[in-house]
């Protein structure tokens, strides 16, 4: 018996990320997506109110599904796991080094280093102080710089827009995912540091900078507050990385530029000749979480930091939207 041969399905780039509604045609035969929002076509329904309500509900559902898919994709990547593992290694090295070599003495090394042998909860605080100038910005630069440029380099950006995700929604989902990584990164350092300190050193009431002591439970809550503070501190840098990611299809360039800007901002912040510029630097309040270790807690630095980061989010978020909405998607 003769049978007609069946043609094999066309290979699809990044099949795990390709939306179900994307066409099955070969990507080379499709036209590029030119500047525009790219939302769904309104339903052909005589009842316009009911149709628009259905579209809004569908968009909310698709946005949540897209956000969940983006988070799964982000945290399943080996690169993300490697970045978090590298951050977790910082408190481990600090704890093991102090355990083997003993106390470094007062005034030597990072802040709170001389307190670790007396109370292991300070391992997490010391690790955050070590990580925030370079290691945390580097990991944030890798994730934020890859948000849009990474999709474009893999040829999956056009399929995400055909879904239809909508350019603004896709950009918002990418930034929210980068923000979740900021929280995961800061929590990794603090939580692993706390566990290492608990395993290697005695744990007891925490002596604050103001001289008073608080219970272990309140000390742990303040450590979580420090992680939240650091997360907020990195949101402005994430917005910068998102904007730089819309300018190129080479993610390494956006990653490197974001990390370099973080280093440059801290260098400028260390120069007294440029003190007039310091209040405008996104890194100005990065170490202000020390006010969470006072009694009572000084919330002014937290508010100033949040306001500064919100300004960077608004400015560079608007720049990213303006660039992405008018960008021709060719890959």
TrEMBL record:
Pfam families: ABC2_membrane_4 (PF12730). Residues 1-57 are annotated as: Disordered. This is ABC-2 type transport system permease protein. It comes from Microterricola viridarii. The chain crosses the membrane at residues 81-101, 121-144, 175-201, 221-245, 252-271, 306-325. Keywords: Membrane, Transmembrane, Transmembrane helix.
């Amino acid at each position: 018996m003769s049978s007609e041969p069946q043609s094999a399905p066309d290979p699809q780039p990044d099949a795990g990320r390709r939306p179900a509604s994307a066409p099955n045609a070969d990507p080379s035969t499709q036209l590029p997506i030119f500047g525009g929002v790219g939302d769904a076509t309104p339903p052909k329904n005589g009842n316009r109110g009911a149709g628009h309500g259905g579209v809004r509900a569908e968009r909310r559902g698709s946005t949540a599904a897209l956000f969940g898919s983006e988070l799964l994709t982000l945290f399943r990547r080996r690169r993300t796991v490697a970045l978090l593992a590298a951050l977790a290694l910082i408190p481990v090295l600090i704890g093991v080094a102090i355990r083997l070599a003993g106390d470094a003495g007062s005034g030597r090394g990072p802040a709170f280093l001389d307190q670790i042998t007396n109370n292991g909860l300070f391992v997490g605080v010391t690790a955050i102080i070590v990580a925030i100038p370079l290691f945390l910005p580097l990991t944030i630069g890798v994730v934020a710089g890859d948000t849009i440029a990474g999709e474009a380099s893999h040829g999956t950006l056009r399929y995400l827009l055909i879904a239809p995700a909508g350019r603004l929604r896709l950009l918002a989902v990418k930034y929210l995912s980068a923000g979740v990584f900021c929280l995961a990164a800061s929590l990794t350092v603090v939580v692993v540091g706390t566990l290492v300190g608990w395993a290697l050193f005695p744990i007891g009431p925490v002596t604050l900078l103001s001289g008073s002591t608080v219970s272990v439970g309140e000390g742990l809550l303040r450590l979580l507050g420090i992680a939240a503070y650091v997360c907020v501190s990195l949101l402005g840098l994430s917005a910068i990385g998102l904007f730089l990611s819309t300018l190129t299809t080479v993610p390494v360039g956006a990653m490197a530029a974001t990390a370099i800007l973080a280093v440059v901002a801290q260098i400028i912040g260390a120069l007294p000749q440029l003190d007039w510029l310091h209040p405008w630097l996104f890194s100005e309040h990065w170490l202000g979480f020390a006010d969470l270790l006072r009694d009572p807690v000084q919330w002014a630095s937290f508010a100033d930091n949040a306001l500064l980061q919100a300004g960077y989010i608004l400015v560079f978020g608007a720049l990213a939207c303006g660039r992405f909405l008018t960008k021709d998607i060719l890959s």
